[in-house]
């Protein structure tokens, strides 16, 4: 039997729809081109990484040669070995393959790759075939009596793009929506995402919350644009839950999304229609209840879904419960009186288990009159659910009532520890309070969320509002809102100190605190709040908002806190300097290196010096250096280098010395002194690394190995060491998953990896790296790195475009991006036609910098193209370029200049001179012979040495 595999790309090969391959913790479905973890989570892979996975898993344990993989993944095209390495690295990262005993993919030197995991062929069951794609959807709960409804809504969504499920509070809209999403999830290749609007109070928060859910950075100007740009090419289902109190904002968002993203479908839940264009409304009916007066035989009552739910929930509270025939009419009446509302039935069930059906019916009759007598136009939730909640509250013991109302200050899902701390008066009460919280769960006044490592509790919003009214009526609101704010200030301080959790683990554990932090800040800034606590909480929570990609919201809190600190007496400098440091980063990561960043950071530095906070001052200086170097302001950047060096000399602090080498490496690279840059970079990489940064530090202070490698790789390439430069890039990529510092990795990809790949002429590698940039930027709060990735995306498209289209596309690129001087100069190093006029002006009037030689060469090439007969001016620029490159030790630029000058000399008949110029430079290279520049130069030199015919 032939063991070879089809060299046609796997995306075009046929496979049985139910065929699946299981290995490790994954299930691969070739026909659907889908890879899921065994828990149903979809694993995102690029097309080429997926083709590699298909090829390797088709022959587990066997070596698949590199050339064979080239034929499968890049049929009919010549590509570099490094292309394959980049995509294999991406595949390993997606599989969590970090080598060692459990590795899945082995590199067999000189031969290819082998898949080492055990691969088991299986046929996907119906449940497996419907494994939910990646997304953010809570698991569906067991539904009773809703099968036809779920099927009907699912069919509606297949035909229509916006379906809104409406109905009274407590009727089960969310549960139905989750069941629908689970049923049709496989129809959406880009996943199903669930956004609960119940914890949002203002229209303006809707789009940022959606961006946070999608792990998108948010720009200050127009956050909706970023969301729409992300959604435009995708096929996914977005569930908007609890829209009723933000119906206008939800409607506008729905219309914008539907107009922009043709492959996106929306499922909304609301007590009223959104009234958006194209909306299809499904009014969710209550559960089926027996007719009143009862005309159905008792033995047939269990056919009604409301009765089924009541029996199931009562039995869950009391396993000995049996619905006897004599009680069936009472059960029918109770379900009918509760209007078939699932939540109301679930609230009544614990009382039935304790009091019996007859007693509950008697009390229910009394309590309904509390909110309905005399007010026929009372809101639906008050005529039904409100009365049910009030009645349920009155059945609590006094201690339970106290805990119930105090827990209302908690807006999101909370831990048992948080509930006990906030509802009790002393630590010794915590045991009793834990029991009371358990009782409130049993009585359906708290719901439970079982997470991976902990159990959390939540009050449904209708119940929480009722409990909050009780708290205010008891005169306890101010005291417990303060306690709530104090508690979450402590949690915020703890967020930044964590060192052992990965970013994803941190998010799983803490992202549910957003609603509570927002409520704590709202109270602290209010007239009844506390200015000191407000400023402390804003500063302490900065890492949290960064992690959730809600940086514009963070910026609002920080600016508000700084204004408050100016007017409120006694706010400590140590707090205010942290506000300024965080605000500088917030502005930088959303707007880029705008002048306001330096103003804010300089004020933070002044406060740090006044407070004697040398470590804080050092890190603010690092941030200032990053701002100035990104802008291309070398004078200001070197000033920061000198100030950091002064701290290092004065304190002998190892971290200060390390930081001085880091910034010196970059500053000297940008100034064109590549030898000194390499010296500082090597010294920084050789110094002992400080301890693992905390989650807070990883946002404000990039990992030193990762950031230094970006400078090091650039300086190596410019110095003519192209292979060493790419080795540094590959090393940093391999370590990215280990260090788990997405901010630092985004910086490295944009500043180091992508330019090196483009300078080497490896567009396929550059494309893969740009994909990594955009992946990283979508998972962190970094608009600046997202813009960097998009810029490179446009540049690569320009390089691949027909020459006739390039000028117009370049005009669009410049119009779409506000380029810093550094970015404009960098464009000119990629290809001469990308050269910007302002870059030429700087190169011809200012002292030479890192790419002056290449800018002058590119301008010389432009002159030759536009006026080929007048070569004197062009030759002068090319010779000046060569002189600068040689003085700077920039062998990479010197080779390009030599090649350009050699072509000019040959065109003028000066072949011997051309051979001497190019041969001298080529002879000094010791590596990089497979890169584009060296291949072209070698070909040109060979042509120059051939006898003329």
From TrEMBL:
Organism in which the protein naturally occurs: Neoroseomonas eburnea
Record's keyword annotation contains Magnesium: no
Domain OmpR/PhoB-type residue range list: 18-117
SUPFAM superfamilies in the cross-refs: C-terminal effector domain of the bipartite response regulators, P-loop containing nucleoside triphosphate hydrolases
GO molecular function, one term: DNA binding
InterPro entries per the UniProt record, alphabetical: HTH_77, OmpR/PhoB-type_DNA-bd, P-loop_NTPase, Sig_transdc_resp-reg_C-effctor, WH-like_DNA-bd_sf
Single Gene Ontology BP annotation: phosphorelay signal transduction system
Record's keyword terms, sorted: DNA-binding
Classification via Gene3D superfamilies: P-loop containing nucleotide triphosphate hydrolases, Winged helix-like DNA-binding domain superfamily/Winged helix DNA-binding domain
Stored PROSITE patterns: OMPR_PHOB
Keyword Membrane among record annotations: no
CDD domains per the UniProt record, alphabetical: trans_reg_C
DNA-binding region coordinates: 18-117
Protein name: OmpR/PhoB-type domain-containing protein
Family annotation (Pfam families): HTH_77, Trans_reg_C
């Amino acid at each position: 039997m032939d063991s070879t595999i089809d060299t046609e790309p796997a995306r075009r090969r046929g496979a049985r729809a139910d065929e699946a391959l299981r290995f490790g913790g994954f299930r691969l479905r070739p026909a659907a081109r889908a890879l899921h973890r065994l828990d149903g989570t979809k694993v995102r892979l690029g097309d080429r990484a997926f083709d590699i996975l298909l090829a390797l898993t088709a022959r587990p344990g066997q070596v698949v040669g590199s050339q064979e993989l080239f034929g499968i993944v890049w049929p009919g095209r010549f590509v570099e070995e490094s292309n394959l390495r980049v995509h294999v690295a991406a595949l390993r990262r997606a599989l969590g393959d970090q080598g060692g005993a459990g590795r899945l993919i082995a590199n067999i030197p000189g031969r290819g790759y082998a898949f080492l995991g055990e691969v088991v062929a299986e046929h996907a069951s119906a449940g497996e075939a419907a494994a939910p794609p990646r997304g953010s959807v809570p698991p569906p709960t067991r539904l009773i009596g809703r099968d036809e409804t779920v099927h009907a809504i699912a069919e509606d969504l297949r035909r229509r793009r916006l379906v809104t499920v409406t109905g009274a509070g407590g009727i089960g809209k969310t549960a139905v929506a989750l069941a629908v999403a689970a049923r049709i999830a496989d129809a959406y290749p880009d996943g199903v995402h669930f956004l609960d609007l119940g914890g949002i109070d203002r229209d303006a928060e809707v789009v940022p919350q959606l961006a946070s859910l999608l792990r998108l950075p948010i720009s200050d100007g127009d956050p909706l644009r970023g969301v729409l740009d992300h959604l435009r090419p995708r096929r996914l289902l977005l569930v908007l839950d609890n829209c009723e109190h933000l119906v206008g904002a939800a409607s506008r968002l729905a219309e914008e999304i539907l107009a922009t993203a043709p492959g996106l479908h929306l499922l909304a839940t609301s007590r009223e229609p959104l009234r958006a264009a194209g909306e299809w409304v499904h009014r969710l009916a209550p559960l089926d209840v027996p007719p009143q007066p009862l005309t159905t035989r008792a033995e047939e009552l269990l056919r009604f879904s409301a009765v089924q739910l009541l029996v199931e929930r009562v039995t869950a509270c009391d396993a000995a419960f049996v619905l006897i025939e004599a009680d069936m009419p009472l059960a029918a009446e109770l379900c009918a009186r509760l209007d078939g509302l699932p939540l109301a039935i679930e609230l009544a069930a614990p009382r039935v288990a304790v009091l019996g059906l007859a007693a509950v019916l008697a009390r229910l009759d009394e309590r309904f009159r509390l909110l309905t007598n005399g007010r026929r136009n009372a809101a639906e939730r008050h005529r039904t659910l409100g009365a049910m909640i009030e009645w349920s509250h009155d059945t609590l013991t006094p201690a339970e009532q106290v805990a119930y109302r105090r827990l209302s200050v908690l807006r999101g899902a909370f831990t048992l520890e948080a509930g006990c701390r906030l509802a009790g008066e002393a630590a010794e009460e915590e045991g009793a309070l834990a029991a009371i919280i358990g009782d409130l769960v049993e009585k359906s006044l708290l719901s439970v969320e079982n997470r991976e490592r902990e159990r959390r509790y939540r009050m449904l919003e209708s119940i929480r509002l009722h409990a909050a009214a009780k708290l205010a009526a008891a005169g306890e609101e101010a005291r417990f809102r303060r306690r709530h704010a104090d508690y979450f200030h402590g949690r915020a301080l703890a967020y930044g100190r964590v060192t052992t959790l990965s970013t994803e683990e941190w998010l799983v554990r803490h992202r549910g605190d957003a609603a509570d932090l927002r409520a704590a800040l709202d109270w602290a800034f209010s007239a009844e709040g506390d200015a000191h606590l407000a400023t402390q909480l804003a500063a302490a929570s900065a890492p949290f908002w960064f992690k959730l990609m809600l940086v514009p919201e963070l910026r609002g809190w920080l600016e508000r806190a700084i204004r408050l600190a100016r007017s409120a007496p006694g706010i400590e400098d140590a707090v205010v300097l942290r506000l300024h440091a965080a605000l500088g980063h917030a502005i930088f990561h959303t707007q880029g290196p705008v002048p306001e960043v330096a103003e804010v950071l300089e004020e933070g530095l002044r406060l740090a010096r006044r407070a004697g906070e040398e470590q804080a001052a050092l890190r603010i200086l690092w941030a200032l250096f990053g701002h100035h170097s990104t802008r291309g302001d070398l004078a200001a950047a070197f000033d920061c280098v000198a100030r950091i060096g002064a701290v290092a000399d004065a304190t002998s602090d190892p971290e200060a010395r390390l930081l001085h080498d880091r910034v010196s490496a970059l500053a000297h690279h940008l100034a064109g002194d590549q030898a000194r840059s390499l010296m500082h970079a090597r010294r920084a990489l050789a110094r002992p690394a400080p301890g693992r940064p905390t989650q807070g530090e990883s946002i404000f202070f990039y990992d030193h190995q990762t950031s230094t490698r970006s400078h090091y790789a650039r300086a190596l390439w410019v110095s003519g060491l192209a292979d060493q430069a790419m080795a540094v890039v590959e090393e940093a990529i391999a370590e990215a998953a280990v260090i788990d510092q997405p901010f630092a990795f985004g910086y490295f990809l944009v500043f180091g990896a992508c330019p090196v790949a483009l300078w080497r002429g490896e567009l396929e590698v550059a494309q893969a790296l740009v994909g990594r940039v955009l992946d990283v930027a979508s998972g962190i709060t970094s608009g600046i790195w997202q813009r960097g990735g998009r810029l490179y995306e446009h540049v690569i498209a320009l390089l691949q475009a027909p020459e006739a289209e390039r000028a117009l596309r370049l005009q669009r690129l410049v119009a779409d991006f506000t380029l810093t001087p550094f970015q404009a100069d960098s464009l000119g190093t990629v290809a001469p036609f990308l050269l910007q006029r302002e870059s030429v002006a700087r190169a011809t009037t200012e002292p030479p910098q890192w790419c002056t030689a290449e800018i002058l060469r590119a301008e010389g090439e432009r002159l030759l193209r536009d006026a080929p007969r007048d070569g004197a001016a062009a030759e002068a620029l090319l010779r000046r370029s060569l002189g600068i490159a040689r003085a700077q030790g920039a062998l990479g630029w010197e080779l390009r200049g030599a090649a350009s000058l050699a072509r000019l000399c040959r065109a003028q008949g000066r072949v011997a001179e051309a051979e001497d110029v190019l041969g001298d430079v080529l002879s000094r290279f010791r590596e990089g012979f497979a890169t584009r520049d060296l291949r072209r130069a070698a070909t040109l030199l060979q042509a120059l040495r051939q006898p003329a015919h």
